[in-house]
Predict the 3D structure of the following.
Amino acid sequence: MKFKILSLAIICMIGSSAFSQSFKIGVKGGATLNKLTGQSFKEQFSFGYHLGGFATIGLGKTLAIQPELMFNQSNVDTSSKFSAVYQFNKLSKVKLQYLTIPLLLNINANKFVTLQLGPQFAVLMNKSKTLVQNGKDAFKGNDFSMLGGLQLNISKIRIYGRYAVGLNNLNDIDNKEKWKSQSVQLGVGLAL
């Protein structure tokens, strides 16, 4: 019992010190360059977009935690092999919409430059209608990625660039080949 009370007191002290350092919320959005690796996809990035919000919880002068909630639309081009291997009717473009939840560790190099890294969990919200019409669920319902990037802080404006690498196989049809996601996010945020 004493251990539980002591643990709760320590958690409350850490939480209150974190919030007393700094707490900011904001909105963000920008372009996303997406690519799925695998024989069935073209080896090039295609454009999408992302919109969402963030919170920054300061843990001192140099560290902060930044959870985010964002809507991402990914556009992916398939190669000619996709329809042949998986017997879809001339499927060339796939549109995927994800709700992503990055949890980033911010390392403030100085007042203007922040390094960001951490995991990102994504939930597939909407698949291309072409895939639904073909009666198959080609893509798994979630994706787990690791992010790394740089953010410039100019007053309340946040300009950022990130690279995300997917860690799990997105192919939900079979095990013929592994599909992994990659993306580059470029955008602007505003701390409120």
